[in-house]
Amino acid sequence: MDYRPASQDAQFILFEVLDASGQLLPLKGLAEADPDLQRQVLEEAAKFVAEVVAPLNAAGDHLGCRFEAGAVTTPPGFAQAYKSFWEAGWPALSCRPEHGGQGLLWVLEGVLYEWLSAANHGWTMAPGLLHGAYECLARSGSDELKAAYLDKIASGEWLATMCLSEAHAGSDLGLVRTRATPQPDGSFHVSGSKIFISGGEHDLTDNIVHLVLARLPDAPPGPKGLSLLLVPKVLADGRRNEVYCDRIEEKMGLHGSPTCAMRFDDAAGWLVGEPGRGLNAMFVMMNAARLHVALQGIGLLDAAWQKADAYARERRQMRAPGSRDAPPDLIVQHPAIRRILDTQRSWVDGGRVLAYQTGLELDIAKHHPEDSRRVQAQRWCELVTPVLKAAFTEQAFHGASECLQVFGGHGYIREWGIEQVVRDSRVTMIYEGTNEIQAIDLLVRKVLPDGGRGMSALLEDLERGLDKSNAPAAEMLASCARLRSLTSKLVGVAEAHVELPFWVAGDYLRAVALVLLGWAWTRIGDAANAQDARWQEPGDAFRHWIFPEFKMRLEMIDKQLTLKTPQ
Amino acid sequence: MDYRPASQDAQFILFEVLDASGQLLPLKGLAEADPDLQRQVLEEAAKFVAEVVAPLNAAGDHLGCRFEAGAVTTPPGFAQAYKSFWEAGWPALSCRPEHGGQGLLWVLEGVLYEWLSAANHGWTMAPGLLHGAYECLARSGSDELKAAYLDKIASGEWLATMCLSEAHAGSDLGLVRTRATPQPDGSFHVSGSKIFISGGEHDLTDNIVHLVLARLPDAPPGPKGLSLLLVPKVLADGRRNEVYCDRIEEKMGLHGSPTCAMRFDDAAGWLVGEPGRGLNAMFVMMNAARLHVALQGIGLLDAAWQKADAYARERRQMRAPGSRDAPPDLIVQHPAIRRILDTQRSWVDGGRVLAYQTGLELDIAKHHPEDSRRVQAQRWCELVTPVLKAAFTEQAFHGASECLQVFGGHGYIREWGIEQVVRDSRVTMIYEGTNEIQAIDLLVRKVLPDGGRGMSALLEDLERGLDKSNAPAAEMLASCARLRSLTSKLVGVAEAHVELPFWVAGDYLRAVALVLLGWAWTRIGDAANAQDARWQEPGDAFRHWIFPEFKMRLEMIDKQLTLKTPQ
Fold this sequence. Notes:
The structure is a homodimer. Chain A is of the alpha+beta class. Chain A has helices at residues 7-17, 20-24, 35-53, 57-63, 78-87, 106-128, 130-140, 143-155, 278-283, 286-312, 335-367, 371-406, 418-425, 435-447, 453-464, 471-494, 500-527, 533-546, 548-564, and strands at 66-68, 71-73, 159-163, 179-182, 188-198, 208-215, 226-232, 243-248, 259-272.
């Protein structure tokens, strides 16, 4: 079965659980932020995803992209679907009106991409990279570059790539060797080899705009020596630039997206932003990019859940315990299956609350009239984004594997499409910063350097909405307190024990993720009807099967504190 | 890199940690059980696996098996390697001398298959199925059937299958519809369709012996109506039997093993054992078969660890915390990577202790002169085997995924072979009884029915070797006590709350697995040099990163007890 976005669920979370309209009321900059239009956009998006993009998913995996003599052919139907997508204006949803965009909320783009990824992760990689390139160019590009490229990227008529990794430089971009040599006319000649370039070459658009990390002559070694250059596949005068795709990788999954090894041979390029500030030009959009990946995780897990749930409601095997029906019973009646389904549902629903709220905070951080609210929103984005990226990509893979288990042997064969979700989702734990790097980013780069003050303030933001007379909320209040106290301990020893935070960063991230998810479920509990099984069963699953990990993680960290910092 | 069995590690665990020779001394039936011969067999096995089987693994995945007009072609080199394998006598290692076997310990066969699976899971599926068929026929076959088939199966000259599943009958074999109709000459005509038949058709041997679950006329519905029939591909007179392979499945992995949809059209077959006792004929070998799968998990995890460990010792990215070397450092110096590697190593080493001990217990249960020791061994096998099957196949998949993470983006592409391990290993969580069924088997079918007495006795067996003056052993003693007390509570409520054990069976199995692994690590601790990082680092990883889950599982079960059985 193909993925079908549950638009009503998204609207419930956005407008009832999170009161997006209320939160955005002060944001005068977003004139079109009226709820009716937003609901209508979501309904239309759901339709497009279900009718145009989802049906291409299985063939995209089976046939994949083909490489021949430097050219890449995408799977059947991909190019036509992409043309419909950009012509209908979807890429420009949240782009600014002055660049031809519709200026709508970031969160609507977020929801759209969650659904697209769920429906067809491979296809979605191509337009998914537009938004970073758009932001990067809009903020740091010269007027000439903007005039030549920005509208085409905003509309999606031209696609874009981020050319960062090299064979020896993955997580450590400071090792990048690609060179950019200045030319008399102000342009550069870019030379070097890049790997793992999603959409580096394809047949979806007439031009592809590469943003390439490279080193100018005499640049210092390491990350500070890196500059960002715009290198188009086709030059303004119609000539082909010296940019070549040498191969596409054979991957575990994501066969619908060509992962290209690119070669730049004195290709013409133009500097984006200042020399030596290449990483800064990219890192301004890091939170949005990571949130996109978190939403991919949520979407893929929802896709896996939809398949497993449907199968469990039609497959019969054995008598369920306590059943009085004639056997065999539907497998959805078996507790082991029920538990798998409710647990994944719980991650998806709670994840949506967190990711959509983070999407709102992205706009609040930019557009809110009050300084203090902007600062608060920026803090939320900085601290919560790496947590969502790591926790929901991990859950996408592990949860999809659980959903595969629902199918028994049928899950392992291609026919049902569930094993594709497992394979496709695996990459999300790696790209846009591996999950290990997200954990270090959270604890070592963000929580510890300000003595835990930012994290403590985030926990206060969560606590503010919790009513201790309500049992689940009271448990979350106690958990916030435990996390705050543990954070203080870590701050206290980190300077003298520099290795310690690196050992426990993953546990710390999980603990924060579980508290955030707990907060999300108290929010759903406040908004949903207490008798509605749709929300109550995954809420119970959170408390019974997911949250117990929180205590385990704190104890693992505590043990390291005791061992490595003897009194 | 290809897998290389660490024969010295296996010998250390078998002869020093477990004192296999001492344990087997009373087993007069196993004349050849002398340690020098056993060590020599292991050295030769390691050589064969590394030189003949491992090099075919990557191509086996990429090219896979091909199906054309009813015939299956295995990947290049597979048939030649299989011929060398059986001609060298490896399949018959533990078969009885009267059937042409060498009569060696079961555990040596176990170690051999652990390594074979690690080296080339797809190839190993074909001979892996021999052993069950051999046992089944040796125990339940008529003299005529044995005379015609047993020696050829023991030697591996002919391969065998188990034809159980049908499209609508997977975990629930009681739904099997294939029919066997008696013929005047005492044979049967077998008709029906089977799916997921590993090695149902191939080019490795001249004949294939199918053991088929089917229903005789007037058999009652459900599992008691099932009989087992031997249906050869080629009849004694050289004619082709009416057995057809209709297709092979496209799978997530294990491409080197053809998973066949088989059709029997009035095929000639002969009854194995009594009518209506088909499941019993098969279930006598269930513990050995499940232990084989547990060993596949251990082997695959070791293969993933070998790849990741080698990569981490040659890849450099970023400065490691506290490092004073010139960056970039080897990634093995980064705590997040170190932790992944040590944790998987800990599962593999501890798993070997448990699986090899279980292998010894299989022989002890058959051959020990004392009744009480045989009973004890049988109890160990019954209770420990489902735990190892579930825990180590789950760890194979999740741990291989962790090892993939060590490679960053390179892990997701085919080149390094690590993603193949993730894909191949996934099936082990499903076949030979899904892991959910293993958990129900343990708690609902074995622990609860005798009021927890068997489990309590098993815990006493574990406790006996633990010295409470040693801290890790003392922790295991306390954990055994907690598990015993929880088991009593479950026994106390199970009758009145029939659904409850099914909700928590998975947690219970994990708790038992963690106590067993803890016991294994105390055994390694007793035998290894306390200064030897080879054993100390994974031992620490067990205590720091693996065992904390034990407490979490007990608390999850306790919570269900509290919720579902209000006082």
